[in-house]
Amino acid sequence: MKNLGTKTLIHENFVLRKFKLGDEYDMFKNYCNDKKVTEYITWDPHKNIELTRGLLISWVTEYSDTRYRWAIEVDNEVVGSIDLVNQDLDKKVGEIGYCLGLKFWNKKIMTNALNLMMDYLFNEIGFEKLSARHLAENLNSGKVMINNNMKHTKTKEILVKNLENLHLIKIYELERKDFVKFTH
Q: Which of 12, 33, 138, 161 fits a disulfide with 40 by CB distance 3.0 to 4.6 angstroms?
Protein backbone atom coordinates (compact mmCIF):
# COMPACT_ATOMS: atom_id res chain seq x y z
CA MET A 1 0.00 0.00 0.00
CA LYS A 2 1.03 3.56 -0.63
CA ASN A 3 0.42 6.08 2.12
CA LEU A 4 -0.38 9.21 0.14
CA GLY A 5 -2.90 10.83 2.48
CA THR A 6 -5.78 13.02 1.40
CA LYS A 7 -5.20 14.54 -2.01
CA THR A 8 -7.50 16.78 -4.02
CA LEU A 9 -9.89 14.82 -6.26
CA ILE A 10 -11.86 16.65 -8.94
CA HIS A 11 -15.27 15.82 -10.37
CA GLU A 12 -17.13 17.94 -12.91
CA ASN A 13 -19.70 18.96 -10.25
CA PHE A 14 -17.59 19.21 -7.08
CA VAL A 15 -14.12 18.97 -5.56
CA LEU A 16 -12.94 16.69 -2.77
CA ARG A 17 -10.16 18.42 -0.83
CA LYS A 18 -8.62 18.65 2.61
CA PHE A 19 -10.49 20.67 5.17
CA LYS A 20 -8.86 23.98 6.09
CA LEU A 21 -9.37 26.59 8.77
CA GLY A 22 -12.18 28.89 7.71
CA ASP A 23 -14.37 26.01 6.45
CA GLU A 24 -16.32 26.07 9.73
CA TYR A 25 -18.68 28.76 8.41
CA ASP A 26 -19.79 26.65 5.44
CA MET A 27 -19.84 23.47 7.55
CA PHE A 28 -22.07 25.04 10.19
CA LYS A 29 -24.39 26.68 7.67
CA ASN A 30 -24.74 23.69 5.33
CA TYR A 31 -24.85 20.64 7.59
CA CYS A 32 -23.37 20.67 11.09
CA ASN A 33 -26.31 22.49 12.68
CA ASP A 34 -29.06 20.73 10.72
CA LYS A 35 -31.24 18.28 12.69
CA LYS A 36 -32.34 16.52 9.50
CA VAL A 37 -28.75 15.96 8.34
CA THR A 38 -27.56 14.69 11.74
CA GLU A 39 -30.65 12.55 12.37
CA TYR A 40 -28.93 9.35 11.22
CA ILE A 41 -25.34 9.95 12.30
CA THR A 42 -23.55 9.60 15.63
CA TRP A 43 -23.25 13.28 16.58
CA ASP A 44 -25.84 15.86 17.51
CA PRO A 45 -26.41 19.05 15.51
CA HIS A 46 -24.02 21.80 16.55
CA LYS A 47 -25.67 24.51 18.61
CA ASN A 48 -23.03 27.10 17.71
CA ILE A 49 -20.15 27.65 15.33
CA GLU A 50 -17.61 27.18 18.13
CA LEU A 51 -18.46 23.46 18.20
CA THR A 52 -17.94 23.27 14.44
CA ARG A 53 -14.66 25.19 14.70
CA GLY A 54 -13.43 22.76 17.38
CA LEU A 55 -14.30 19.78 15.19
CA LEU A 56 -12.60 21.39 12.20
CA ILE A 57 -9.42 22.14 14.16
CA SER A 58 -9.20 18.50 15.27
CA TRP A 59 -9.72 17.31 11.70
CA VAL A 60 -7.12 19.68 10.24
CA THR A 61 -4.50 18.69 12.83
CA GLU A 62 -5.11 14.95 12.23
CA TYR A 63 -4.03 14.99 8.57
CA SER A 64 -1.15 12.64 7.84
CA ASP A 65 -0.04 10.31 5.06
CA THR A 66 -2.46 7.68 6.40
CA ARG A 67 -5.46 9.96 7.14
CA TYR A 68 -8.15 10.16 4.45
CA ARG A 69 -10.78 12.88 5.04
CA TRP A 70 -12.26 15.18 2.41
CA ALA A 71 -14.40 18.28 2.39
CA ILE A 72 -16.99 18.13 -0.39
CA GLU A 73 -16.89 21.52 -2.09
CA VAL A 74 -19.56 22.70 -4.53
CA ASP A 75 -19.21 26.17 -6.09
CA ASN A 76 -16.43 27.09 -3.61
CA GLU A 77 -18.58 26.14 -0.61
CA VAL A 78 -18.11 23.16 1.74
CA VAL A 79 -21.37 21.18 1.70
CA GLY A 80 -20.33 17.88 3.28
CA SER A 81 -17.59 15.45 4.23
CA ILE A 82 -16.46 11.96 3.32
CA ASP A 83 -13.70 10.03 5.05
CA LEU A 84 -12.31 6.75 6.28
CA VAL A 85 -13.69 6.50 9.79
CA ASN A 86 -11.83 3.22 10.47
CA GLN A 87 -8.98 1.50 8.71
CA ASP A 88 -6.61 -1.41 9.09
CA LEU A 89 -3.63 -0.75 6.85
CA ASP A 90 -2.15 -4.22 7.44
CA LYS A 91 -5.35 -5.91 6.21
CA LYS A 92 -5.90 -3.19 3.57
CA VAL A 93 -9.49 -2.56 4.67
CA GLY A 94 -11.34 0.62 5.57
CA GLU A 95 -14.77 1.87 6.56
CA ILE A 96 -16.22 4.97 4.94
CA GLY A 97 -18.48 7.57 6.53
CA TYR A 98 -20.11 10.58 4.92
CA CYS A 99 -22.41 13.52 5.54
CA LEU A 100 -24.01 16.01 3.13
CA GLY A 101 -26.03 19.19 3.52
CA LEU A 102 -29.77 18.75 2.99
CA LYS A 103 -30.10 21.08 0.00
CA PHE A 104 -27.53 18.94 -1.84
CA TRP A 105 -29.35 15.62 -1.36
CA ASN A 106 -30.72 13.76 -4.40
CA LYS A 107 -28.27 15.39 -6.81
CA LYS A 108 -25.90 12.39 -7.06
CA ILE A 109 -23.18 14.39 -5.28
CA MET A 110 -22.59 11.78 -2.58
CA THR A 111 -22.91 8.86 -4.97
CA ASN A 112 -20.22 10.40 -7.18
CA ALA A 113 -18.07 11.49 -4.20
CA LEU A 114 -18.07 7.93 -2.87
CA ASN A 115 -17.10 6.58 -6.28
CA LEU A 116 -14.27 9.11 -6.65
CA MET A 117 -12.98 8.35 -3.17
CA MET A 118 -13.14 4.58 -3.67
CA ASP A 119 -11.29 4.88 -6.98
CA TYR A 120 -8.47 6.71 -5.19
CA LEU A 121 -8.39 4.34 -2.19
CA PHE A 122 -8.48 1.18 -4.32
CA ASN A 123 -6.35 2.18 -7.29
CA GLU A 124 -3.84 4.67 -5.88
CA ILE A 125 -3.54 3.69 -2.22
CA GLY A 126 -4.10 -0.07 -2.53
CA PHE A 127 -7.01 -0.90 -0.26
CA GLU A 128 -8.49 -4.35 -0.96
CA LYS A 129 -11.91 -3.94 0.70
CA LEU A 130 -14.02 -0.94 1.72
CA SER A 131 -17.19 -0.95 3.77
CA ALA A 132 -19.86 1.51 4.85
CA ARG A 133 -22.87 1.31 7.16
CA HIS A 134 -26.13 3.11 7.70
CA LEU A 135 -29.11 3.00 10.01
CA ALA A 136 -31.69 0.73 8.41
CA GLU A 137 -34.24 3.56 8.25
CA ASN A 138 -31.83 5.81 6.33
CA LEU A 139 -32.68 4.38 2.91
CA ASN A 140 -31.01 7.19 0.94
CA SER A 141 -27.62 6.38 2.43
CA GLY A 142 -28.10 2.77 1.43
CA LYS A 143 -28.91 3.87 -2.13
CA VAL A 144 -25.57 5.69 -2.31
CA MET A 145 -23.81 2.42 -1.41
CA ILE A 146 -25.90 0.29 -3.77
CA ASN A 147 -25.33 2.76 -6.63
CA ASN A 148 -21.61 2.17 -6.11
CA ASN A 149 -21.97 -1.62 -6.44
CA MET A 150 -21.49 -2.18 -2.71
CA LYS A 151 -23.16 -5.36 -1.48
CA HIS A 152 -25.21 -5.66 1.69
CA THR A 153 -23.33 -8.19 3.82
CA LYS A 154 -25.07 -8.07 7.20
CA THR A 155 -27.55 -6.34 9.42
CA LYS A 156 -26.94 -6.04 13.14
CA GLU A 157 -28.54 -4.33 16.08
CA ILE A 158 -26.34 -1.88 17.99
CA LEU A 159 -26.72 0.91 20.48
CA VAL A 160 -25.98 4.14 18.63
CA LYS A 161 -24.24 6.72 20.80
CA ASN A 162 -26.51 9.76 20.56
CA LEU A 163 -29.70 7.99 19.48
CA GLU A 164 -30.18 6.29 22.90
CA ASN A 165 -31.84 3.13 21.58
CA LEU A 166 -30.91 -0.02 19.75
CA HIS A 167 -30.99 0.44 15.98
CA LEU A 168 -30.55 -1.90 13.05
CA ILE A 169 -27.40 -1.10 11.10
CA LYS A 170 -26.93 -2.31 7.53
CA ILE A 171 -23.36 -2.96 6.49
CA TYR A 172 -22.18 -2.93 2.87
CA GLU A 173 -18.83 -3.97 1.43
CA LEU A 174 -16.96 -3.77 -1.83
CA GLU A 175 -13.73 -5.49 -2.85
CA ARG A 176 -11.30 -3.85 -5.21
CA LYS A 177 -11.87 -6.50 -7.89
CA ASP A 178 -15.58 -5.57 -8.01
CA PHE A 179 -15.12 -1.79 -8.13
CA VAL A 180 -16.47 0.05 -11.17
CA LYS A 181 -15.34 3.63 -11.75
CA PHE A 182 -18.03 5.95 -13.06
CA THR A 183 -17.34 7.48 -16.45
CA HIS A 184 -19.48 10.60 -15.93
A: 138
99-141 per-position pLDDT tens digit:
999 999 999 999 999 999 999 999 999 999 999 999 888 999 9
Q: Which of 144, 140, 148, 141 is nearest to 181 (CA)?
A: 148
- Rounded to whole angstroms, how far apart are CA atoms 29 and 161? 24
Single pTM value for the model: 0.94
The answer as to whether 89 is a domain residue is yes
Give how far the C-alpha of residue 31 lies from the chain's centroid of Cα atoms, to the nearest Å. Answer: 13
Counting the structural domains of the chain, the total is: 1
Question: How far is residue 161 from each of residues 40, 54, 104, 167, measured CA to CA in Å?
Answer: 11, 20, 26, 10
Q: How many of the other CB atoms lie within 10 Å of CB of 109? A: 21
The model's pLDDT over 35-91, given as tens digits with 9 standing for 90+, comes to 999 888 878 899 999 999 999 999 999 999 999 999 999 999 999 999 999 999 999
Strand ranges of the sheet holding 93-100, from the earlier edge strand across to the other edge: 9-10, 15-17, 69-74, 77-88, 93-100, 129-135, 166-175, 151-159
